[in-house]
């Protein structure tokens, strides 16, 4: 159940406005819960000050941390004064993504929110290496927030995989729709949830090598398979047929286009969190979709996901 009550907001140190904190407050005001504003900082110049003693370097780090805490309090003063429960924490850590994920684990946070920067020309979101580390490795759902006005019609798009190529797709599809419904019913009066799936066209090399192969018949059969699977999925959650979309094409093209047409507030998708050779050889379909989105993103891991980050004992 997506009853997010313990939210962690990764503060952007390079700008005064914090859309991720604003989105967290939006959720808490409607669903309850508490927020922790978290910022890992590090400056190698403080570690390289050889003329200073370890005590003096430690005092300098504490001074910088204190300044950042005061800065975050200033950013959040309106929310704090209105009674929103926000804890502020700044730590000294050389790897921001590790610090954030370790805080998720030790603080038992059930949702991480972070701002994704917007490209000025394409209006799509730009993801930094920090973003990708969090999307792939964070054990809890990750909400990447775009700095935009929330649409008047609160709509969410759930990207589902109906190919049946892997057994885990069915379980993940059910988890995505259920968590989206749970969250939407808690924070939106009349939620509108759309399900989107894409299916590939017949490979050209097969059509060329097999004279009797009819790509039109193949495409129609594949579309029929996806329509049947979509009907089965939507009926389990009482979703109207008009709110389901099955389109031919690549997911990274189809899903962003549907989101644009519907003026979607957030797209929810599953991300397997592959890293290393697995990611290099198999790829991460979700990540190709993410690159082209123009709205908020909620990335959810499948059940059984194992976080590769361990918690520091210090």
Automatic annotation (TrEMBL):
UniProt-listed Pfam families: Usp
Domain UspA: residue ranges: 4-146, 179-301
Keyword field: Cytoplasm
Compartments (UniProt record): Cytoplasm
GO cellular component: cytoplasm
Keyword Cytoplasm: yes
Top-rank lineage group of the source organism: Bacteria
Record flagged with keyword Cytoplasm: yes
PANTHER family in the cross-refs: UNIVERSAL STRESS PROTEIN E
Cited function: Required for resistance to DNA-damaging agents.
Protein family according to the UniProt entry: Belongs to the universal stress protein A family.
Protein name stated in the entry: Universal stress protein E
Source organism per UniProt: Xenorhabdus bovienii str. kraussei Quebec
Gene name, Swiss-Prot/TrEMBL: uspE
